[in-house]
Amino acid sequence: MATTSQPRNASSDQTGEPETKLKRVMGPGLLLLFIVGDVLGTGIYALTGKVAGEVGSIVWLPFLVAFVLAAVTACSYLELVTKYPKAAGAALYTHKAFGIHFVTFLVAFAVMSSGVTSASTASRAFAENFAESFGFGGGAFGITAIGIAFIALTAAVNVRGVGESVKANVVFTCIELTGLLIIIMIGAAALAGGQGDFGRAFDFSQTDETGLFWPVIAATTLAFFAMVGFEDSVNMAEEAKDPVRIFPKVLLGGLLITGVIYLLVSVTAIALVPADELSDGATPLLKVVEAGAPWFPLSIFGIITMCAVANSALINMLMASRLLYGMSRERVLPKVLGKLLPKRQTPYVAILFTTVLAVALITFVGAVPELGGTTALLLLMVFAVVNVAVLVLRKDRVDHDHFKSPAFLPYIGALSCAFFVGPWTGRDPSQYLIAGVLLGIGVVMWGVTVWLMRRSGEKVSGGDMSALKQ
Fold first, then answer.
1. Distance (Å, rounded) from C-alpha 122 to C-alpha 151?
2. Distance of alpha carbon 194 from its chain centroid, rounded?
3. pLDDT tens-place string over residues 329-371
4. What is the CATH T-level fold of the domain 25-455, as seen in this structure?
5. Quick one: how far is CA 407 from the chain centroid?
6. pTM score, whole prediction
7. CA gap 42, 176 in Å, rounded
8. Which of 89, 187, 278, 354 has the most CB atoms less than 10 A away?
9. Domains of the chain, residue spans
10. In this structure, are residues 122 and 146 in contact, taking their beta carbons and an 8 Å threshold?
11. Sign, CA torsion 104/109/114/119
């Protein structure tokens, strides 16, 4: 829903769009593909079984709750991106709302850290699917080695350049979407042939006395990882054609498409594979293919799965390294992180730093649920701040029409995101430890940077960090 706001001093062109140095090349189709490709990926391929382990047969319900939670926060992002169509995302909104440089830095570093944990999750999932699909018997050490080799390959593509990364992203998006459509078609064929038990998906009975509420909440903390990625699209605002007009319908449309796909996949999965079997192991969708279409080569679907999680890793490592580079350029992190490779003009030191962090997570944490849960935890914190920022910034008027979230939604978004951050959700305590260590590293680096600048007599940056690109 659009609303007209009162004018204020702002730089804009004759069309009412803010001036930008970036080329506006993304129409609705490309933007939709970007959003769908960013949301689809590791979560549904790797965590469906873990979600089933929490709630049993109603595995689709946590994905539905996660979709609603994401859609509420997406409305807040839409109000802000159409109000301030710049490419800095949550960092810009936080600075505009609160004006506290350190808080802005923490939000930006949390987003960067979520990219690293998400890529680490994808790398581990890649390794586990590789081992399952090709009968690799290397055990835990072998899987870790594959994950590290994969993240190193991702770094090499990242160093090569954005052009290569974006081209790979388009190919991987098509492949991962094909994989999920295969699962849905297998489910449709099974239903038509009387195979499987689709009634099982709607069995709400519980075998213990805990009831449904808390198991669904615990499962949603995992399922939410499958819905993240939509927030990255706001960073394309300066490269999208007429962002104020197209963003609302494209972002909400992209979320709806992915939400429907996830619900269909999760219903198909539980109809063909009982919850106890689906939750056992790290390759749930391979089990679905094996049960519903035993004639389909598992190695082929394994490759599809690996492409899907590779896409997640590539997108997130690209985002994390560029955001780290941006923070260095804003002089809130050591300036060495802003160094560029002479010929490629890629931030090779930032790429190396984020890769080292990812390797450490793959080596010392490893487990997909813990890494994916940490990603969701970090982003839920950011989303809570963004929902509050919408409310604070409603007093700020701009000189163009923009999307306005229904008045009550930001309140619901802030409270629900804050709720899902809490330990009462059944979240593994290790996720708080991982998030705390990552943010602690950022705070130490920030403190060292400030100390070095003061020691050398330089003015400590009080910049608005609005130049940050994710």
1. 9
2. 37
3. 877 888 888 888 887 778 899 999 999 999 999 999 878 889 9
4. Amino acid/polyamine transporter I (1.20.1740)
5. 26
6. 0.87
7. 10
8. 354
9. 25-455
10. no
11. positive
